[in-house]
Amino acid sequence: MTDNINMNIDEGDSEINDSDDEYEIPPDNDVCDMLDEVNLNTELPIITDRYFIPYYKIDVQKKYDDICIRIHSNRICMLSLAPSHALLQNKYEIEKLSFKVTEKLDRTANKISGKGKRGAQPMQANSNICIITCTNGEVWPIKCCIFGKLIEVNESLVENPQLLKKPPHKGGYIAIILPNIKIAESMKNMLLTEDDYKVAIDKRENILEEMNNLQNGDTSKRARDNEFSSSDKPEKMQKT
């Protein structure tokens, strides 16, 4: 039986052609066509867009005091100024940023340890995370807007406050907050989604534009009334 097996193997080997002479290399003239089908102009999503969902709170303390909270799937929140914040407009020049929010409380002194983030400074929605001063003397305290534990602050902003005008992934974020797991989901209901934010911004601009138009209209009306009242006054008779 062994002889029959060996005989079959020998016969099979005789039919195998291990020469490369008969192998035809497939044409590669279709590579260009394949590349043409790839859209090389498509922008890849940045890391904050890929892994974080943005939420917003506008007019926190006054008009154009808009904050963006990017929330990761693991609950970590990245705090930054929203694109519509007044400090990101050209009329403002940022002079300095300080994480020393009171005489005794400095956010840069935050020290944490362990998985429970022991030692982290507790944050409330109305807690000041930093204070920004402009060259015109105007001061903007920036609120945390959420409840949680302070994980870190972006100390690079102290040395270079102009980084605030950069995207978060390029150094423009202010702080990292870990919200309480019990209120993480309900916290989102207190914030605006991306779509809601855009609607709210458009609505605010429309209202301000209407107010400006009314104000300009009232100013013009008063000017006309003053002009008419002046022309209606009788001239004083000169004594002869």
TrEMBL record:
Name the family the entry cites.
Belongs to the ABITRAM family.
Q: Name one GO biological process term.
A: regulation of filopodium assembly
Q: Where is the composition biased (Basic and acidic residues)?
A: 219-240
Superkingdom in the source lineage: Eukaryota
GO cellular component term of the entry, any: lamellipodium
**Region (Disordered), start-end ranges:** 211-240
Q: Which organism is it from?
A: Microctonus hyperodae
Report the protein name in the record.
Protein Abitram
Q: What GO molecular functions are on record for this protein?
A: actin filament binding; actin monomer binding
